[in-house]
Amino acid sequence: MNKLISLEDAVNLVRDGDTIMIGGFLAVGTPERLIDALIAKGAKDLTLICNDTGFIDRGVGKMVVERMFTKIYASHVGTNKETGRQMLEGETEVILVPQGTLIEQIRAGGFGLGGVLTKTGLGTLVEEGKQIVEVDGERYLLEKPMRANIALLFAEKADLSGNLTFHGATRNFNTYMGAAADISIVEAGEVVAIGDMFPDEVVVPGVFVNYIVDGGAL
User: Fold this and answer.
1) Which domains does the chain carry?
2) DSSP character string of 99-162
3) Distance between CA atoms of 170 and 116, rounded to whole angstroms?
4) pLDDT tens figures, 89-135
5) pTM greater than the 0.70 cutoff
6) How far is C-alpha 8 from the geometric centre of its chain's CA atoms?
């Protein structure tokens, strides 16, 4: 099955008000062309789930500057002063989640788990409003699964059926987010024919990918 679509068709799948996951770690492994196209489209009232909000001029930070989000879930925002300003001014709701907890919540959402038990955040503000579960006399926070309408991902290479491979740190959250979204769209640096990837190259199988944008052809 050929999953290749145009950049325009890809961003038209994102609707105002959607919850979106975007891969990347400090803009490394971020689908920059998809982000630029979403900015040009003028999508609004989005909820973002990501590791961080990048920088003012790189990664999802460019979307923050354009006021495209009403709510952001991230593990840190310190590299983007505009995110911090919007948070402190009450313009955007920013929910800070411990990084390990965040990726486990996404993984739980992708693979049908009921949640994650963790001690991280016990006795802090993170605990407020959350269920405490006791196991063998130990207390844990129940962190619920996270899912999204759309995942926007980046891969170094994809074949036409959606099998993905990555280079170095570009793997980051890109490897799990596709499973945790109703629709996953991958911006690939290179797109090859089915059969042109060695099986042991594949990090994310095509079953978790709905659409591919050929980033190298743009």
Assistant:
1) 7-217 (3.40.1080.10)
2) HHHHHHHHHHHHHT---EEE-TTTTSGGGTT--EEEETTEEEEEEPP--EEEEEEEEEEEETT-
3) 25
4) 999 999 999 999 999 999 999 999 999 999 999 999 889 899 999 99
5) yes
6) 20
